[in-house]
């Protein structure tokens, strides 16, 4: 099944397993399609109500509640990998044959900017920058060309939409201090 959506969207099948996870969901949640597909939705999305109760659970509240009990959109808190809890509105559609649940996610924090994960190599470079190493030192330590170091730093600045290495490093350190590790480890990323 292909669902076209410019916003964050995922689809769950009758077994409550995720069968579609678009790029906007990857950026919002900080989880790749590979991590999410075929996993139970309640293990990945983990939304909670305002009262702190698990919304995403088995049996699915969308399937067990009466139509009168469900208001749409739902407002829920969702844990994301790099930005912590995010308040979202969830709109959904239920299809009966075969049973399919489509979820459209709308962050309520208008200032929310998804944190694209760093590749393992980019994470190494920014870790070394945070230790006061120069670009030349980093190239020597990692046994890569200075131009490769420069390219990785420029790509991170572009990805995070910051003007300089210093801004990117500040952002990297802030994420680290908040307990977020902005890396995309072990997902087929190019490490050179």
In the sheet with the most strands, the strands line up as 2-1-5-4-3
CATH class call of the largest domain? Alpha Beta
Could you name the CATH homologous superfamily of the largest domain? PAS domain
Specify the CATH architecture of the largest domain. Answer: 2-Layer Sandwich
Low-confidence segments? 185-192
Can you give the helix content as a percent range? 25-40%
Count every helix, treating DSSP H or I runs of 4 or more residues as helices. 8
* Shape summary: elongated
Output the keywords:
Beta-Lactamase; alpha+beta; Arc Repressor Mutant, subunit A; disordered C terminus; 2 domains; elongated; 192 residues
Notes on the protein architecture:
With 192 residues, the chain is α+β, with helices and mostly antiparallel strands. It has 2 domains: 8-107, PAS domain (Beta-Lactamase); 120-177, Orthogonal Bundle (Arc Repressor Mutant, subunit A), CATH 1.10.10.10. The chain is built from 8 helices and 5 strands, in the order E-E-H-H-H-H-E-E-E-H-H-H-H. It has helices spanning 23-29, 33-36, 41-44, 61-64, 120-130, 135-142, 146-160, 165-177; strands at 8-13, 18-21, 74-80, 84-95, 100-107. It has a 5-stranded antiparallel β-sheet with strand order 2-1-5-4-3. Helix 5 crosses helix 7 and helix 6 packs across helix 7 (146-160). The radius of gyration is 19 Å and the shape is elongated.
